[in-house]
Amino acid sequence: MTLDLVIQQLVNGLIVGSFYALIALGYSMVFGVIKLLNFAHGDIYMSGAFVGLIVFSFVGVWVGNGWLGVVCALLVSMLAVGLLGVVIERFAYRPMRNAPRLSILITALGASMVLNGSALALTGGRHFAFNTDLGFAGLDVSAVHITYTQIALVAASILLMAGMQAFVSRTMYGKAMRAVSIDMGASRLMGIDVDRVIALTFFMGSALAAGGGVMAGAYYGSVHFFMGFIMGLKAFTAAVIGGIGSVPGAMLGGLLLGLLEAYGSSLPFVGSEWRDVFVFGALILFLVFKPTGLLGRSVVERV
Question: Could you say which of 169, 215, 235, 240 would form a disulfide bridge with 23 (CB–CB 3.0 to 4.6 Å)?
């Protein structure tokens, strides 16, 4: 493996890993607060990509297909899909909050199918081009060309993740989230509006996934109804590797998974078709040998 290949795969891994990390944050936040594996989260990511494409198509008429259009699409998509996450929590998950774990898990799968089936019906299963004019200008490191677009996408992802970590650790609502995750009943007795805190958790997790969807659509140049399935599974893997329920763990797990996928697929006698083998092989290994993940903690349920 040459130095140029190492640098190139580092860039590729960080970009893909940042997308995984943004989605994994939603998994970890929801699981940390209400112990729910929200399997509709990958389809939230897909919904964000489509909302971003629609906004980008309209805004582009006035501001062009450059960075301003992408930023407008990103902000509107995060707001709209964040509200979609709140609606899903209100009508799909809240009535099932005290139901057996299997029932709420089936509800999450049902919500995923509704989102995916709706996107299929509305788009006819077609791929839609996300055409931007971001260009290919950038920096040359050795023989590797790193575009300003790649740098901006990674920087934006890190900024969103850092902002989320600061919100959870430094604000009153962040403290309320941590309190609800420890003991929901005691939090109610202390005057915390648990329903509002859970809705805010879904809003923020969904908004981050939508942001990842818009950035992935702009980077890869296309969106389609099935794009959330494999990304959702890989983001779940990233959350498990980092320690599901841990916000820093989700960030670390996403970036590590992106690097593992990039470097693993570039090994001698191994092609890109093996990248999913490395990803889900890592999931199995962590579930067997370290199910709490890198930064997760063991949780003892009280009965």
Answer: 235
